[in-house]
Amino acid sequence: MAIKKTFLLIFTAFFISACSSSSFIKVGNLKYKPKPDNYEMPVLTGKFIKENHYKIIGRVFATKEIFFTEEETVVKVLEMLKKRAKKEGADAIIDAQFSKQFNREIQSFVIKGVADAIVFKMPKKNPGEKLPPKNGPAKHLEL
Questions:
Q1: Nearest CA to 85 among 66, 64, 65, 62?
Q2: pLDDT > 70: what percent of the chain?
Q3: Rounded Cα gap, residues 61 and 57, in angstroms
Q4: CA 73, 93, 4: angle at the middle one, nearest 5?
Q5: What's the whole-number mean pLDDT along residues 18-40?
Q6: Residue 18 CB-density burial (10 A; 0-12 exposed, 13-18 middle, 19+ buried)
Q7: What phi, psi does 57 have (nearest 5°)?
Q8: Which of 26, 78, 123, 132 has a CA-to-CA distance to 111 between 20 and 30 Å?
Q9: Mean model confidence pLDDT for the chain
Q10: Domains assigned to the chain
Q11: Nearest to 81 by CA among 49, 117, 53
Q12: Under 8 Å CB-to-CB from 53, ≥6 apart: which residues?
């Protein structure tokens, strides 16, 4: 039942018909503090960062009608994804995807975007790793 509900939420959020909209589907129960307006939201590809260095906090969706060119609209949809992710407290978005679709309600083409919103995790310290002493020079580890 929970899987059907999650699928229905994702389906509804992604296929909402509107000239311009954004939405967020949260993963888990944790809340994150929104990022300030001047925060530069990175757009990353998941294959370039180690999976254990981030946590997916949700999925962001954005839709915008094409007024000028598709490229300009994709840039605007990307900005909408980043803005929504900031509002939800994400550190970055990864694996953004875009599609062009015809919206029958408004009789126009729209660009839809989706991306995972993530927060970075601090890598866990290797239990055998020793840190240098706070006072004095660091000792070199022998291999």
A1: 62
A2: 72
A3: 13
A4: 90
A5: 91
A6: middle
A7: -100, -10
A8: 26
A9: 80
A10: 2-120 (3.30.110.70)
A11: 117
A12: 120, 121, 123
Q: How far apart are CA 9 and CA 134, in angstroms?
A: 51
Please give the C-alpha separations between residue 5 and each of 2, 36, 49, 77, 122, in angstroms, as whole numbers. 5, 32, 31, 26, 32
Euclidean distance between CA atoms 84 and 26, whole angstroms: 12
Q: What is the DSSP string of 37-66?
A: TT----EE-GGGS-GGGEEEEEEEEEEEE-
Q: 5: helix, coil or strand?
A: helix
Q: Is the dihedral of CA 72, 34, 18, 6 positive or negative?
A: positive
Q: Over the stretch 37-86, which tens digit does the pLDDT of each residue have?
A: 999 999 998 776 777 789 999 999 999 999 889 999 999 999 999 999 99
